[in-house]
Automatic annotation (TrEMBL):
<keyword id="KW-0408">Iron</keyword>
<dbReference type="InterPro" id="IPR001128">
    <property type="entry name" value="Cyt_P450"/>
</dbReference>
<keyword id="KW-0472">Membrane</keyword>
<keyword id="KW-0349">Heme</keyword>
<dbReference type="InterPro" id="IPR017972">
    <property type="entry name" value="Cyt_P450_CS"/>
</dbReference>
<keyword id="KW-1133">Transmembrane helix</keyword>
<feature type="transmembrane region" description="Helical">
    <location>
        <begin position="74"/>
        <end position="95"/>
    </location>
</feature>
<protein>
    <submittedName>
        <fullName>Cytochrome P450</fullName>
    </submittedName>
</protein>
<keyword id="KW-0560">Oxidoreductase</keyword>
<dbReference type="Pfam" id="PF00067">
    <property type="entry name" value="p450"/>
</dbReference>
<dbReference type="InterPro" id="IPR036396">
    <property type="entry name" value="Cyt_P450_sf"/>
</dbReference>
<dbReference type="GO" id="GO:0020037">
    <property type="term" value="F:heme binding"/>
</dbReference>
<dbReference type="GO" id="GO:0005506">
    <property type="term" value="F:iron ion binding"/>
</dbReference>
<dbReference type="InterPro" id="IPR050364">
    <property type="entry name" value="Cytochrome_P450_fung"/>
</dbReference>
<keyword id="KW-0479">Metal-binding</keyword>
<comment type="pathway">
    <text>Secondary metabolite biosynthesis.</text>
</comment>
<feature type="transmembrane region" description="Helical">
    <location>
        <begin position="20"/>
        <end position="41"/>
    </location>
</feature>
Length: 533
């Protein structure tokens, strides 16, 4: 017994141990894979009737940060005009066809008009406010109604002279900065200040007369940081809830940005209040409306700061971005510029530059603006919509709480709608006499000019103001200058800055006055400070 038992034990040990070790490792691997697989591979959901979610890439992604629009366009070619992609635990459905965009975002707007409460953008920076990040609820309706009072076409007439004046100052400041056309300049700061001043006027009934004013710098810096932090596909922390407990740099930057917004815009609201308390007849502006209706509308301090911030965060780099893309494009298309100059000279001559009313008589300039916005929309991945009910579309299941992205880069480069889509061809819009706002209401989605302002109930509420800003700046730049890139300096149209709204990377241009009337006209107006900021 004494001899046998150890022998049996040792033979068992020698024959069974490797087997059990193998089985154990197989089991452990299977267990690990059962945890890891769902993290790596897509989940193919079905509804109770067996409708599958739209097809899409087999892997899950943590983020898409570098040129996400290219991946979305490439996937749309592989998986079709309605495909799905998993970002961490979040299902995204990507719309790359205008008919589908209309069916879902417009015709079924009651289901597809909410916003995902992104951890970085909605929860940390904007705290569910600022219109753009508010879920589809009564607060959104109320805040959007208040904002629309300042952004509708009738309201815009009230400050039309200010928009006109700011366009004058834009051209004038660039003219002097170039030493009357002799030196190249970086246009970005001037253009951003133009957009900022328009927003300061509408929001706070004020403007800034300096390009280096500390407040201008701070407001612009906040807007840049906002663009950098709020891409809809940028942060893994937005798609994997567990990461929200880790103190990441993105979370820290988002908290700082929230505090910065509250500080800067809070201080600016208090200045308007001080003016009103001192008996000044402050012109109509968003903050005046907020202060006068605060009790009746039950707005708390954070609502007020975030509403004031909405116009500046949403309205500076979107508009200035388009003007910068215009300058970049036009400087490398002399034939387009020559045709624009010929139209301006033929219709207006050289004694007066374009005003808002002239837009109907200058179809080629209008076409240039539409083409810039098509070819270089500031948002390639616009603020996504979010579904609030299960829905089946063409046999495909879109569950409640799905994020929907309008794949603007693919839509704006659709061969059928825009032949030769990567070429800059303003003439494709000749014959389109509608404004973007009018065009967005057309019944046939294929007839719409472009989709840069979004779609449905969340469509950009500032579409009228933005169009007017673009018209005044671009038509006057063309009237006044011959626009070129400096010799031996090419302007890149490839890269860009910003994860949500995109602006071109810094470049220089030369602005040579086209005739003597430029100086006479520009000297007619002195820059004023309506209020010391
Ligand atoms: C060329 C200029 C502009 C472009 C291309 C643009 C584009 C957009 C887009 C694509 C959206 C999302 C629409 C959607 O969800 O379907 C949007 C929303 C918004 N935009 Fe603009 N925008 C521009 C200028 C402005 C300006 C000047 C302001 C400031 C007054 C502004 C304020 C907003 C706000 C507050 C929203 C959120 C609307 C909501 O969620 O209900 N935008 N914009």
């Amino acid at each position: 017994m004494v001899n046998v038992i150890p022998k049996m034990g040792s033979s068992t040990l020698h024959s069974i141990t490797p087997l059990s070790a193998l089985m154990l490792s197989v089991l452990l691997t299977a267990l690990a894979l059962s945890f890891v697989f769902p993290l790596i591979f897509r989940r193919n959901l079905e509804d109770s009737d067996g409708h599958p979610i739209p097809p899409g890439p087999p892997l899950r992604y943590l983020y898409l940060r570098r040129r996400p629009e290219r991946a979305l366009r490439a996937w749309s070619m592989t998986y079709g005009p309605l495909f799905s992609v998993w970002m961490g635990n979040q299902l995204f459905v990507i719309i790359s066809d205008v008919g589908i965009a209309k069916d879902l975002l417009v015709s079924n707007g009651a289901i597809f008009s909410s916003r995902k409460q992104y951890f970085i953008k909605s929860q940390t920076i904007l705290r569910g406010r600022s219109i753009t990040s508010t879920a589809y609820n009564d607060t959104w309706r109320q805040h959007r109604r208040i904002a629309s009072q300042l952004l509708n076409p009738k309201a815009i007439q009230g400050y039309a002279s200010v928009l006109d004046y700011e366009a004058h100052i834009l051209i004038r400041s660039m003219y002097y900065e170039t030493a009357m056309g002799k030196l190249p300049i970086y246009p970005a700061h001037f253009v951003a200040r133009y957009a900022l001043n328009n927003m300061l006027t509408i929001t706070f009934a004020t403007r800034t007369d300096s390009t280096t004013d500390p407040l201008t710098e701070r407001a612009l810096a906040l807007a840049i940081e906002f663009n950098d932090l709020t891409g809809p596909l940028t942060h893994s922390v937005d798609f994997i809830e567990l990461l929200q407990y880790i103190p990441t740099t993105a979370r820290l930057r988002a908290r700082r940005l929230h505090d910065g917004i509250m500080d800067v815009y809070g201080a600016m609201i208090m200045r308007v209040k001080a003016r009103m308390d001192a008996g000044e007849d402050v012109p109509d502006c968003l903050v005046k409306t907020l202060l006068l209706t605060q009790e009746q509308e039950k707005l708390d301090w954070e609502d007020m700061c975030m509403l004031a911030a909405a116009f500046n965060l949403g309205g500076i780099h979107s508009t200035s971005g388009v003007i910068l893309w215009f300058l970049a494009l036009i400087s490398s298309h002399p034939e387009v510029q020559a045709r624009a100059h010929a139209e301006l000279d033929g219709v207006l001559g050289r004694d007066a530059w374009p005003s808002e009313e002239d837009s109907q008589h200058l179809p080629y300039i209008r076409a240039i603006i539409k083409e810039v916005v098509r070819a270089h929309a500031p948002f390639w991945t616009p603020p996504p919509h979010f579904s609030t009910e299960d829905f089946v579309y063409n046999g495909m299941y879109i569950p409640k709480n799905t994020v929907l992205i309008l794949n603007l880069y693919a839509i704006h480069h659709n061969e059928e709608k825009y032949p030769d889509p990567f070429a800059f061809k303003p003439e494709r819009f000749l014959g389109d006499s509608l404004t973007c706002a009018e065009s967005s209401k057309l019944t046939n989605p294929m007839d719409r000019d472009h989709w840069a302002f979004g779609a449905g109930r969340r469509i950009c509420p500032a579409i009228h103001v933005a169009e007017r800003e673009l018209w005044l700046a671009i038509s006057r730049l063309l009237w006044a200058f011959d626009i070129r890139s400096p010799p031996d300096e090419s302007i890149s149209l490839e890269g860009y800055n910003g994860q949500s709204s995109r602006t071109p990377q810094p470049y220089r241009i030369t602005l040579t006055p086209r005739h003597d009337r430029v100086q006479t006209l520009l000297e007619a107006e002195e820059e004023v400070t309506l209020m010391k900021l």
